[in-house]
Amino acid sequence: MEVVVIGAGLAGVTSAWYLRQAGCKVTVIDRQPGPGLETSYANGGQISVSHPEPWANPSAPSTILRWLGRPDAPLLFRWRADAAQWKWAFQFLRECLPARTHRNTRAIASLALYSRRELQALREQTGIQYEAGQGGILHLFEKKSELKHLPAKQAQLEALGIRARVLTPGETLELEPSLAFMESRLAGALHGVDDECGNAHLFCQALSTKAAEAGVDFQFNIRLQGFDRSTEGLHGVRIRDSEGRLGMLRADACIVAAGSYSARLVAPLGLKLPVYPVKGYSITVPILAPERAPHLSLTDESRRIVCSRLGNRLRIAGTAELNGYDLRPNALRSATLLHWLDEHFPDLTDTGAAEHWCGLRPATPSNIPLIGRTSVPGLYLNTGHGSLGWTLACGSGKALADLVTGQPPEPMFPFSG
Ligand SMILES: Cc1cc2nc3c(=O)[nH]c(=O)nc-3n(C[C@H](O)[C@H](O)[C@H](O)COP(=O)(O)OP(=O)(O)OC[C@H]3O[C@@H](n4cnc5c(N)ncnc54)[C@H](O)[C@@H]3O)c2cc1C
Predict the structure, then answer these.
(1) 93-128 confidence digits (pLDDT tens)
(2) 0.85 exceeded by pTM
(3) 10 C-alpha vs ligand 1 centroid, how far in Å?
(4) Whether the CB of 383 sits within 6 Å of ligand 1
(5) How far is the CA of 396 from the centre of ligand 1 (A)?
(6) Structural contact between residues 172 and 230, judged by C-beta atoms closer than 8 angstroms
(7) Contacts of 247 (CB under 8 A, 6+ apart)
(8) Which atom of ligand 1 is least distant from the CA of 37?
(9) Which of 89, 192, 312, 415 has the most CB within a 10 Å radius?
């Protein structure tokens, strides 16, 4: 079977790898000059299985209202004259109903657990290096009032098959001594024992090299122009290179893994995808004193900021802004991350050499990615992973390959079509 994958981010590269492993002849196109150069470039680095709860949950509406008018709010809606944005926001509110949150959490947990197992197997099989870190994620809480929910949260995670431990401040520092300076303000932590972290961009590069060695044809600086479709279904894609030359790629199946742009690409086919960009920021800073740097990945639950050690650098990421496709950086948002770093790890890093970045999370209102068939025969989706695209990458790619090749995917998940 000949397959064209549109997009070489985490979703596209993993799809291509597993499709090739399943015996397909695979071509990947991407408008960028290499893999993982858009949203998969500098994310928070967390393989965060211990955070399956979607953004849309019963407490989200009141939290968003509380943050309203604060330009540094962790989640900010910048209203635009854009029907897609308003529709997304309305659907988001609907997904905050308890029953929906419960259902969505179960689905994400099932895919996330499967995905981490597939990532571990892939690492074993290929030996790829991507600054991977194990030992779990520490979810940090600074307010005593937040602690009362932790035993219930832990029980909920355990029921989903996710190992987690509630830690006192003392136990937290024993596990991560670099947090000693915040002993007095730390109320407690939840340790996602089996979580991991790693550099998503390096992963995309390393896996695409392996995939190319296995026969996948990567075509960079190539933009999708449209789909070649008849009443029988899809026959391939129309493409344009960086010099404006047009071409055609024949395919039995096309996979749309174009991140936040997926909805726009398939709109001419009459498909309306509930995928909207949610902008986030990161800074990456060289570590000056490795012996004082954290070894575990951290999540500051009050500020919704994550911190991962990637080799000899720290990556701090967070903030979510619903502001269309605008990729211009907002200095205040980066400053919030620098401020967090200063407050938590003073003098540890060279902030003057910080690499500033922002990207567009391809988000669905429910946080449930769109993986599987569409109503157009031959057209498949692997997109809409929102804040968990790294966590869910391998499982989504493998499940997609199973669906394309007629195998039943393993996770209990509402696959499309
Ligand atoms: C600040 C931030 C922090 C994050 N932290 C985490 C985290 O800690 N853990 C986690 O699990 N997830 C995290 N995420 C989410 C994760 O990074 C994304 O879900 C994931 O990168 C999305 O991957 P993707 O392949 O769908 O999209 P992308 O990486 O954007 O890939 C899509 C590709 O499609 C290509 N493309 C688009 N249009 C066309 C076209 N017309 N023709 C050809 N090519 C096209 C683009 O060039 C791009 O390479 C974070 C995201 C952000 C923004």
Answers:
(1) 999 999 999 999 999 999 999 999 999 999 999 999
(2) yes
(3) 7
(4) yes
(5) 13
(6) no
(7) 238, 239, 240, 241
(8) 49
(9) 192
